[in-house]
């Protein structure tokens, strides 16, 4: 691949107060979002959260009820889709069934009056490894190949932004993994801004530089994947991205940089910087910790746990062995279904359902959330995804 | 026992062949009798092989004139009904407007209405308007009754079309006109072609409505009917056979083209 596919500096995508309502239903609440140029940006959320509507407003296929869309310095809010320098990869691919692969990919170039398309189309087909299939019709290709045609057809136009609407949704798991890497490779190669809509949190986290988690027409949280995972700001994000153990607690006191909280008799430490709500003594807070951060020790060995770690006692309710790790569900006073993922390094044969255990973790891995929220928000959506 | 088993295994093929024979036998008779040399005016009994009628298809007064008129009317009616019907079909599928539901069901009325009733009512209408019966009244009537068939054929196609395809075209810099010409029309084409073929066939051999509204104009079906009162010239069979052969050649040609294209692509 030569540098010909490098796009001109396009600038950031800026959405300012953009919203969409259908009658009395609000699909997208007024939303401000800046997508940095050249980034791989994911809009993540369950179906119906407004992520696709947001994408379609950037493409111009949906007219916003309010707000503006800027590409770099250009206000494109009033432009029809065929005048916007963005291209879309549709969920169903939307390949033209009456045209062969070559003509599908050449479509955008031809519409802009470019006569000699052969070299560019062939280069693009090589980029997505479909050079051999140029004269086939879309229905003669496999799902993964069709998906690559859809990407090639959009990318050949060197858009300022490439919009991807659940592009991997129709593929089976193995192919999906492969295409995730492939898309990431292409994005790195061409340097175009990618905006990727998906309901698959793993997909968003592996591919994107930045992820906006959407819920009910609003952005819940925006950040780098690791940041979202380690520092969720809402229960929805905590539950939708991976699994979180959330414990209802009461703020006891402040101790240096930590907040001391009480949960069903246990005293836990929480870094003040990771607490999403102001910690006032007597205030309610949800204390969270990810299952893989937690150690599990049999009650008889409790003395061997280093000082300074958060501890909770409980009894193993269930355990399932899944190869690399064993997943335990522990019944604690503070949290009825506390999940622990333990790596299978030195398995303690006594850790079976019914055994009394001590759960312990580094206080630095604890996060605090506003207790006024629904503690289970995002659980069902996360499982469905 | 062996025969019973053979029969059981081939039942579907036998049933298929019998049905085909049932469908094709009338055409075979028409073809065979186009080579007859009848005694007298009626071509009902096989006498003797002859190619006289094929050598002189216009030998009967009025036949070729009526045939040419029927072809002209069928062509214009097809064009008119296909253009209007396609527009109606797109409007019904793509847009929400007042009376859409009513139009959706009313469009089927001409198909359901007994043809002879429609023919008589049309005549009443034309007479009240003081219209001169002839080519134009026939054409208007034909476009009217072909319309519902075209709408039905095109509508089915447009409904099964993914609206994302047109959005994709727009996304790829095709304006509304380009989108229609490059994407919508080619994808709807099979439906439109089916509607057009149906319209042509319906218009070409329509007798009842035409007979009521033709005045002194004579189309080919009217000519056949008229001459059947006084005898049946062999040339009628010649025209019938020729039409049948042309239609079969069309089908074979389109199949051959389709096959070659598929083989090249594969």
TrEMBL record, chain B:
<dbReference type="GO" id="GO:0005886">
    <property type="term" value="C:plasma membrane"/>
</dbReference>
<feature type="domain" description="ABC transmembrane type-1">
    <location>
        <begin position="67"/>
        <end position="257"/>
    </location>
</feature>
<protein>
    <submittedName>
        <fullName>ABC transporter permease</fullName>
    </submittedName>
</protein>
<keyword id="KW-1003">Cell membrane</keyword>
<feature type="transmembrane region" description="Helical">
    <location>
        <begin position="105"/>
        <end position="127"/>
    </location>
</feature>
<keyword id="KW-0813">Transport</keyword>
<feature type="transmembrane region" description="Helical">
    <location>
        <begin position="183"/>
        <end position="204"/>
    </location>
</feature>
<keyword id="KW-0812">Transmembrane</keyword>
<dbReference type="GO" id="GO:0055085">
    <property type="term" value="P:transmembrane transport"/>
</dbReference>
<feature type="transmembrane region" description="Helical">
    <location>
        <begin position="133"/>
        <end position="154"/>
    </location>
</feature>
<feature type="transmembrane region" description="Helical">
    <location>
        <begin position="73"/>
        <end position="93"/>
    </location>
</feature>
<feature type="transmembrane region" description="Helical">
    <location>
        <begin position="12"/>
        <end position="35"/>
    </location>
</feature>
<dbReference type="InterPro" id="IPR000515">
    <property type="entry name" value="MetI-like"/>
</dbReference>
<keyword id="KW-1133">Transmembrane helix</keyword>
<feature type="transmembrane region" description="Helical">
    <location>
        <begin position="234"/>
        <end position="257"/>
    </location>
</feature>
<dbReference type="Pfam" id="PF00528">
    <property type="entry name" value="BPD_transp_1"/>
</dbReference>
<keyword id="KW-0472">Membrane</keyword>
<dbReference type="InterPro" id="IPR035906">
    <property type="entry name" value="MetI-like_sf"/>
</dbReference>
<dbReference type="InterPro" id="IPR051789">
    <property type="entry name" value="Bact_Polyamine_Transport"/>
</dbReference>
<comment type="similarity">
    <text>Belongs to the binding-protein-dependent transport system permease family. CysTW subfamily.</text>
</comment>
